[in-house]
Amino acid sequence: MLKLYDNADSGNAYKVRLVLAHLGLPFERIQLDTDSGETRTPEYLATNPNGKVPAIVLANGDVLCESNAIIFYLAAGTALLPEDNLERAKVLQWMFFEQYSHEPNIAVARHVLKHLELTDERRALVESKREPGYRALGVMEGHLADRSFFVAEQFTIADIALYAYTHVAGEGDFDLADFPAIRGWLTRVSRQPGHISITQP
Amino acid sequence: MLKLYDNADSGNAYKVRLVLAHLGLPFERIQLDTDSGETRTPEYLATNPNGKVPAIVLANGDVLCESNAIIFYLAAGTALLPEDNLERAKVLQWMFFEQYSHEPNIAVARHVLKHLELTDERRALVESKREPGYRALGVMEGHLADRSFFVAEQFTIADIALYAYTHVAGEGDFDLADFPAIRGWLTRVSRQPGHISITQP
Fold it and tell me: For the complex shown, is ipTM > 0.85?
């Protein structure tokens, strides 16, 4: 059975749980406490030398890391990932956008505000995420203005990748009031059959 | 003909030029000066709302952004991208690693040192990139210790994605002296038939 190195509060790990739920795939869930350094032990670094969750271990022992690579692997051959090369590349475009322009701002602000003591330095870090975070949300809002989903008018792993931290952006003090297209899309994603919440055990 | 929105000094844009060179594909090259804001004009934002290079425009007018999504699209069906789903996902794993753990440290330090006036704030920014940048290089070094290339012992777009900023890491004041496996791999990549340098017009 597939083994998932997981963290209950991580949006990156939630992407994998959400795809597994949509596909109805059973898995063994191993929770690691990232705050207390459980992803930096010698044992875990032997599994993922980059010291992050999520990572999956396949039945044959192969390890795959990086949330978006994992969900690409799991979704191949399913309705969550188009077969067409250009549509597939557009799914990847939004997933790379998520990891470069969205997550380092919105998820990092959320992490600091939820998990760490708010020193002056950390407050400045959070504030430095405000402008690029809202810029990323603006790019999403413009794209969704006349679309139901990010790519090919179908629900794909691009939506799952971007949903993970957008739906909890408020926990990073990002206000979605001025982003009606994003709010409509969040509702559509959450109403997909098979959807689970980030807190589902 | 494929149109490439490009910047001569960008490693991200170089990835695309390098794949196009390996595949022998002709293209129209449009240089944008990122330092003077040419990627933030209303005209360019209509092409790429995220305001970055590279972006490509296909013969049918479709636009694709994000360097690693572009090279995935171009490499599909060629020897630069394995067909096997797990190998393909491992290629993506290293490309997401590149955009999250490598580029934001090594490329950003290089950009500041090469392009911007070195204020105290920017000096502190560069110094903050030192530890995570070397950590990313350490992950690469460990992986390459007993491998010729990143995935499946063949030259793929994972190598191209990681080569782009690793081979100019010295310009960000990263010293590769203690990374012999990386240095050997850089040489192997640069000796692939069809290779071009980042400065090739």
Answer: yes
